[in-house]
Amino acid sequence: MKLTVKQTRALDLLEDGTTKEVSYGGGAGGGKSLLGCYWILKSAMKYSGTRWLVGRSVLKRLRETTFVTMLECLKLQGLKEGTHFTVHNSDFVIRLSNGSVILFKDLARVPSDPNYDYLGSLEISGAFVDEAVQIEARCKEVLMSRIRYKLDEFNIFPTALFTCNPARGWIYNQFYIPSRENRLPEKRAFVQSLATDNPHLPASYIEALNDLENSIKQRLLFGNWEFEDEDGQLFPYEQVVGAYSNNREPDTKARFISADIALQGSDKFVIAVWQGLKVLKIVSIDKCDPDEVVQVIKEIGNQYRVPKSNTIYDGDGIGQFLTGYLRGAVSFRNNAAPFHKENYSNLKSQCFFKLSEKLNKGELNFSLIEDRHRNDITNELTAIRNDSLGTDNRLQVTPKKDLKQILNRSPDYADAIMMRMYWESKKKSIMPPVLW
After folding, report:
1. Do 309 and 405 lie in a common domain?
2. Do 264 and 212 belong together in one domain?
3. CA–CA separation, 339 and 341 (whole Å)
């Protein structure tokens, strides 16, 4: 099998004994899946009785694409089913004649298991994740912790390969940007590979990529990580990132709390504490019971001296059952009518458009938000668009169900931040503040 120059470079990194994480790709047609399958197969054949993982976020796509590539790779290596390997469809495993095993795993976030505990009992010798931008950074970290099977016996260095096309997210933050700025840590490497780097592709493939709509062509043909389709985008990436370094101080001493409530389900309970339009603190809790939700909001309200009337929480879903316990606070209803009869489909859309206005004017200060929250906030906000673009309908943002599919989770941070715009979209109350 003939590898391209870029594939050979990535393979060298995967086998150098110092690089733990390799990200490969950045465009269509660069041979991402074939590289991953070849490296996994080569390693499994070299080290008898070892266990290797091939993963993707959606099991159906894994079966239809990466698994098929693995079967092609086996054939290219002259290996015959029944003699050199067997395919076990029931548990989605390929077993080699030397006792090594290749596991194919769905790595999607399970709502009831946000910490990926289902991977806890897994022990592997190495991993290849195809289309890795579709999994969460947390999944990657857990997966890396499971690479420990027979490492000492064969002196195997714990290594994982993550292939991808350009997209904003953890690969952009952990690999692409540090690589571009020459500050990648020694344990990580990024290899950009485009269709034009692959001499084995037919000319018609390049032509097909060149005929794509511009925003898609920029990513898949040119490997442009920075290109954004501005049509309908409410929160441009550069503006969101700029808010983290915006030191503009608030012109008011008024403080607020906006909270997106979640209990024992898959969503996060997120609280944002504000002074004016500056976020002072973000609190994120995975699981809470109703008493804890109320207690946390009251404690934070007292700590930051936020009046009850300046506290808002999601009044839909679970939040509707807490109204009596949070008396005096504002219960935010997403589908409530917009203020001043403005041309929005609901209050939620009005507040997201107001948030976009404040962000793009440079009025939002996110400088105190901790690094561990920033990636999620950025991904959520940049995914939100004007869903009514090109229609005569009232202004509306991307529905939450669509955002969940895009993000593979609920946009809890974005919702908590958006609710702060409740007061920006109406006149200030003249009622005297009452503390918790």
Report:
1. yes
2. no
3. 5
Per-residue model confidence as pLDDT tens digits over 120-134:
889 999 999 998 988
* Beta strand pairing call for 51-56 and 85-88: unpaired
Is residue 190 within 8 Å of 223, Cβ to Cβ? no
Going by their DSSP bridges, the two strands 255-260 and 311-314 should be labelled as parallel
Same domain assignment for residues 168 and 286: no
**Pair 293, 412 in one domain:** yes
Contact 125, 47 (CB under 8 A): yes
- Separation of alpha carbons 189 and 161, rounded Å: 10
CATH code assigned at 327:
3.30.420.240
Maximum pairwise Cα distance, the chain: 81
Tell me, yes or no, whether 210 and 317 share the same domain.
no
* Residue numbers of the domain that contains 408: 237-422
321 CB-near residues (< 8 Å, 6+ apart) = 290
C-alpha to C-alpha distance for 389 and 368, rounded to whole angstroms: 34
CATH number of the domain that residue 145 is part of: 3.40.50.300
Coil, strand or helix at 281? strand
pTM for this model (two decimals): 0.59
Q: pLDDT tens for residues 224-261?
A: 887 655 557 899 888 999 999 999 999 899 999 999 98
What is the distance between the alpha carbons of residues 56 and 106, in angstroms, rounded to a whole number? Answer: 6
Q: Residue 74 — φ and ψ, nearest 5°? A: -60, -40
Q: How far is CA 212 from the centre of its chain?
A: 25
C-alpha 261/C-alpha 263 separation (Å) is 7
Q: Which two tokens stand for residue 147?
A: 């690479």
Q: Give the number of C-alpha atoms closer than 13 A to the C-alpha of residue 379, restricted to the C-beta side.
A: 27
Which is it for strands 101-106 and 51-56: parallel, antiparallel or unpaired? parallel
Distance, CA of 50 to CA of 126 (rounded, Å): 9
* Residue at 64: amino acid letter: E
Do residues 54 and 130 make contact, with C-beta atoms less than 8 angstroms apart?
A: yes
